[in-house]
Amino acid sequence: MYRFDRHLRLLMFNQIEKIEVAIRSAIVNITSRETGSPFWITDSSCFYDAVQFTKTKQLIDAELAKSREDFIEHFRRTYSEPYPPAWMLAEILPLGVMTKIYENIRNNQIRKKIAQEFSLTVPVFMSWMTIITVARNNCCHHARVWNRTFALRALAMRRMTRPWIATEVNQQKVYFSLCVIKYFLDIISPNNDMTAKLQTLFIDYPTIDANAMGIPMGWEQEPLWQ
Asked: Domain segments of the chain: what residues?
């Protein structure tokens, strides 16, 4: 079970890495384009909750203070602006902070355009970003995931425009997180082999209780996994 959990975490983390890049890029590029400002992340006028913005600025300050990234050092030496542009800051901020930044964007049309990049509504996109963040953190900190019951309850769309699961499942089990990962992955990497890798994992560890993971019978036949 320990070995299975380790391999499952590695599988999840490798896929989440791609999703994280795609989400960061969508938030930064679309908001930069729509606001016309490369410095929107540190501009209070772009956000509606001043308290949340202040907390975010404090986190940005902390990350900048400890960053030794070459591009941050180059910016400090070359430019006089107090903060780097959004696409630089997005490289050093945790995904959870980027989620908070997205949630606080004042212009809801911008948030809609970002969510639409992934064929989701704003509330569902925010909910699923949280699912991705929690899964990422569990994988990073080597926490058990295979039969864990997560505290979060996710939102779901009534009508999905892309392949999704037809069977109602327990959203607090890892299977739902795997479904969310696969959903995003199908958009950013359409020819991914996540289904095959998951099937191989179950073949390698035949004694694992799929029910404890929230996996229904015949999961491979779901539109999402085909």
From this structure: 2-225
